[in-house]
Design brief:
GO terms for molecular function: ATP binding; ATP hydrolysis activity. It holds the Pfam family CbiA. Keywords: ATP-binding, Cell cycle, Cell division, Nucleotide-binding. The chain has eleven helices and eight strands. By secondary structure, it is of the alpha/beta class. The chain has a single domain, classed as Rossmann fold. The protein has an eight-stranded mixed sheet, sandwiched between helices. Strand 6, helix 6 and strand 7 form a beta-alpha-beta unit. Helix 1 packs across helix 10. The longest helix is centred in the middle third of the chain and has 16 residues. The chain is globular and about 70 Å long. The model has no long low-confidence stretch (mean pLDDT 90). Bound molecules: adenosine-5'-triphosphate.
Length: 262
């Protein structure tokens, strides 16, 4: 049976879309067929992050112009598909997110994938939460600042009111700093379990610039291991962290300083 996961955040810029992409790539490495849907109808970014620039048909065209959803399912890599949202405000004016039948849309694309990752818009003002299908589970992404946790709490409260099941929260861009909220503090504020801590890591940005996921570029880094651990948890799979190739580094170093033959 297909799984539907909405990835939401109270505040923008906490790394929600990046996480959606990295989880999608991670899930494909576990052999799943993944579809990522950009549900941010106003400030879409999934197209940019997945390298899908200027797609011919977008979700806007489906919602406002009666184009078929099949026309905007783009396979970016084996086992990874993306449904992008448009950037034209004129089309957007004809769409009321509250009245979108996501059930119908998801039914039409169900055969394309096992897992549907829905990149939600930041905040609670879009009305899009009201239209989500009943079987959607939600992940809340936050950083450890007071304001992003406060806004994450608003998402948690709204989700409870709408009976949306929450899997837990992901603490993204984490770094050790005595002034930021701790995991325990965030857990007690949000009252949902922590399911992943992704460190603040410049490699995330660098991999994006290279058009790849960090789990492909640097699979043994703490960030990639944390992402794959989270992916495995969501899929109910086992994941053994990849150790950095210390021996390889050591022998390369020895060769460099002339202790070993080439
Ligand atoms: N763990 C991380 N470490 C370092 N940088 C990160 C991490 N996660 C995301 N970023 C960077 O943070 C920036 C914002 O990420 P992203 O666009 O995914 O956020 P968002 O929450 O989806 O934002 P918006 O709500 O505005 O769409 C990007 O430049 C991304 O590369």
């Amino acid at each position: 049976m297909s799984k539907f996961i909405a990835i939401a955040s109270g505040k923008g810029g906490v790394g929600r879309t990046t996480l959606t992409y990295n989880l999608g790539v991670g899930m494909s490495l576990f052999g799943r067929n993944v579809i990522m849907l950009d549900l941010d109808l106003v400030m879409a970014n999934l197209d940019v992050i997945t390298g899908l620039l200027n797609p011919d048909v977008t979700l806007h065209d489906v919602l406002a112009k009666n184009r078929s959803i099949d026309e905007c399912v783009y396979e970016i890599e084996q086992g990874i598909r993306v449904i992008p949202t448009g950037i034209h405000f004129e089309t957007l004016r004809h769409i009321n997110p509250k009245y979108i039948s996501w059930n119908k849309i998801l039914e039409e694309i169900a055969d394309y994938g096992d897992i549907f990752l829905m990149d939600m818009p930041a905040g609670i003002n879009s009305n899009i939460f009201e239209g989500l299908p009943e079987n959607v589970e939600m992940i809340i992404v936050t950083n450890s600042t007071m304001t992003s946790v406060a806004d994450a709490l608003k998402i948690r409260i709204l989700s409870n009111e709408l009976n949306i099941q929450i899997i837990g929260f992901v603490l993204n861009m984490w770094y050790d700093d005595g002034f930021l909220l701790s995991v325990n503090e965030i857990e007690s504020i949000l009252e949902v379990p922590m399911i992943g801590i992704i460190p603040y890591d410049r490699e995330v940005e660098r991999s994006m610039a290279l058009g790849k996921s960090v789990v492909e570029i640097n699979p043994s880094s703490p960030t990639s291991n944390a992402l794959m651990q989270l992916t495995a948890h969501l899929l109910g799979e086992e994941y053994k962290p990849i150790e950095p190739d210390k021996e390889g580094i050591l022998s390369r170093l020895k060769k460099f300083i002339g202790m070993l033959p080439d």
